[in-house]
């Protein structure tokens, strides 16, 4: 194909073909995972425009594309074809790709692809084995189905922001969003999990199916212990800053030269930590002997622990905790953690080279497979750089017909 070369996929999904009609983050995050695992992903972009996130900067990549760094985080291991699905000729090309695809991922509004003949009913009639995943803010049914859903809205509506941030009575108190688009990212993860389950079902039965993924559903499902505290214990979760709603102490403390994190998960660890900081008496206090007592008496315990911890230098206390096999650490900023020797040893940061020679750094797939590791075949593509290859090699479009489609604006080659 033109554009990116075509190295052989080695991941566990090698041989699986994905038609990616999604943009921004939740859908592309899902398809990037599938691509990392070896699937062939064909990303369809609007001619002359491309994925919205290509312009979500600064910062921008300093090359001819001027693609935003945001776009680069979610679009490796894909080929980009610029096809106008609103044109009947473009929609027909996409249907031909879908006829031979295993998976379609889209994040249009509910019913938005029906008029183009690219909805599940239309494509499954052509390809009954197709697994078709729709990602929306609120799902395919329910009173909110026609609303647009964005990560920030979902974080607030889901209850996540009601438990994130400092308490209202503290300086800086109030609801706070998470520092990454967590609702989009986790919906992408759940979508990939669901698609893999559907592939297993298809392997057994030959049947494809429609998967309905909603950002709100996903984010509410992640309330996990906080929701269970309310559903099964009547406890209304609230903002606790860096404290844990159940386990104590599990928070940040100030040392003589900076803050550290203390994450003690059981009574044994608590006793060992108290001995370490010179307060072996604390576990003998009836209020603090077990977590059931420490949790409601957390403020009294904190007042006892803080002076003892404040005498330590942070590096010394972290080293002492590590020697005692107690979980603790510091709050890293992004540059520090990306340069951390553990991250380097695990190969989390990787370099990829775009078709024009530009180097792009990405965060790799975190799972380590003993037999079929994730692979890194294509750097995030420039918009439309694989249009010619997809249409001529995959669909058999002639050079004359391709030229006519380009002239009519139905398809486009490189946007940049």
Key words describing this protein structure:
416 residues, alpha/beta, Rossmann fold, formyl-coa transferase, domain 3, seven-stranded mixed beta sheet, three-stranded antiparallel beta sheet, 12 strands, 14% strand, CoA-Trfase_fam_III, CoA transferase, CoA-Trfase_III_dom_1_sf
Describe the overall structure.
- The protein has 16 helices and twelve strands.
- With 416 residues, it is an alpha/beta fold.
- It has two domains: 17-221 and 341-412, Crotonobetainyl-coa:carnitine coa-transferase, domain 1 (Rossmann fold, 3-Layer(aba) Sandwich), CATH 3.40.50.10540; 250-333, formyl-coa transferase, domain 3.
- The protein has a seven-stranded mixed beta sheet, with helices on both faces. It has a three-stranded antiparallel beta sheet with strand order 7-8-9. It has a two-stranded antiparallel ribbon with strand order 10-11.
- Strand 4 (103-106), helix 4 and strand 5 form a beta-alpha-beta unit.
Provide a compact summary of the structure:
One of its GO terms (molecular function) is CoA-transferase activity. Keywords: Transferase. With 416 residues, this protein is of the alpha/beta class.
């Amino acid at each position: 194909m033109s554009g990116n070369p075509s190295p052989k996929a080695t991941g566990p999904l090698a041989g699986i073909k994905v038609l990616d009609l999604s943009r921004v983050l939740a859908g592309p995050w899902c398809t990037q995972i599938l691509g990392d695992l070896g699937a062939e992903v064909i990303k369809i972009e609007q001619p002359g425009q491309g994925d919205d996130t290509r312009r979500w900067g600064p910062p921008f990549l300093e090359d001819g594309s001027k693609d935003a760094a945001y776009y680069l985080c979610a679009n490796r291991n894909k080929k980009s074809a610029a096809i106008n699905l609103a044109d009947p000729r473009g929609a027909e090309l996409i249907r031909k790709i879908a006829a031979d695809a295993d998976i379609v991922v889209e994040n249009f509004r509910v019913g938005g692809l029906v008029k183009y003949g690219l909805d599940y009913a239309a494509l499954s009639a052509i390809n009954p084995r197709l697994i078709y995943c729709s990602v929306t803010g609120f799902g395919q049914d329910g009173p909110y189905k026609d609303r647009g859903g964005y990560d920030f809205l979902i974080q607030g509506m889901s209850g996540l922001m009601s438990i994130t941030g400092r308490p209202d009575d503290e300086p800086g108190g109030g609801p706070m969003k998470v520092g990454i688009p967590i609702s989009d990212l986790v919906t992408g993860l759940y979508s990939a999990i669901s698609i893999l389950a559907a592939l297993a079902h298809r392997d057994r039965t030959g049947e494809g199916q429609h998967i309905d993924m909603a950002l709100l559903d996903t984010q509410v499902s992640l309330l996990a212990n906080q929701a269970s505290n309310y559903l099964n214990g009547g406890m209304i979760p609230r903002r606790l800053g860096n404290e844990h709603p159940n386990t104590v102490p599990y928070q940040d403390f100030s040392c003589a030269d900076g803050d550290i994190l203390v994450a003690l998960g059981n009574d044994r660890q608590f006793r060992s930590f108290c001995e370490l900081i010179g307060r072996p008496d604390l576990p003998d206090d009836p209020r603090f002997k077990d977590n059931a007592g420490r949790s409601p008496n957390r403020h009294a315990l904190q007042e006892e622990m803080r002076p003892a911890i404040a005498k330590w230098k942070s590096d010394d206390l972290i080293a002492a905790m590590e020697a005692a096999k107690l979980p603790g650490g510091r709050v890293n900023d992004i540059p520090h953690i990306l340069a951390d020797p553990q991250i380097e040893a695990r190969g989390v940061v990787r370099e990829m080279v775009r078709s024009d020679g530009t180097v792009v750094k990405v965060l790799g797939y975190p799972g380590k497979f003993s037999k079929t590791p994730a692979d890194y075949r294509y750097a995030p593509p420039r918009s439309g750089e694989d249009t010619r290859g997809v249409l001529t090699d995959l669909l058999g479009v002639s050079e004359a017909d391709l030229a006519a489609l380009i002239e009519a604006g139905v398809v486009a080659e490189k946007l940049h």
